[in-house]
């Protein structure tokens, strides 16, 4: 069953976020994750969006997603992630 890693974010430093993203991409791929979508909404239909950026990644299972997130390689990017953007990270398992 697929699992989804979702990041909602607001960019603080574009260069630092790009560095984080480039470093995270091969780690995500090594756990069989794939980027499905990254960007901002074309329009907000209801309410205010404090974190307008969204990235959605699919993993083959919740176990793979958790292994990616808790891996030493990904955890070593925490400082870079926090320097580049304010983020809320969530995990979802498909039904």
TrEMBL record:
Transmembrane segments: none annotated. The lineage of its organism: Bacteria, Pseudomonadati, Pseudomonadota, Alphaproteobacteria, Rhodospirillales. Coiled coil: none annotated. It comes from the Bacteria. This is DUF1330 domain-containing protein. InterPro entries: Dimeric_a/b-barrel, DUF1330. Residues 2-93 form the DUF1330 domain. It comes from Kiloniella antarctica.
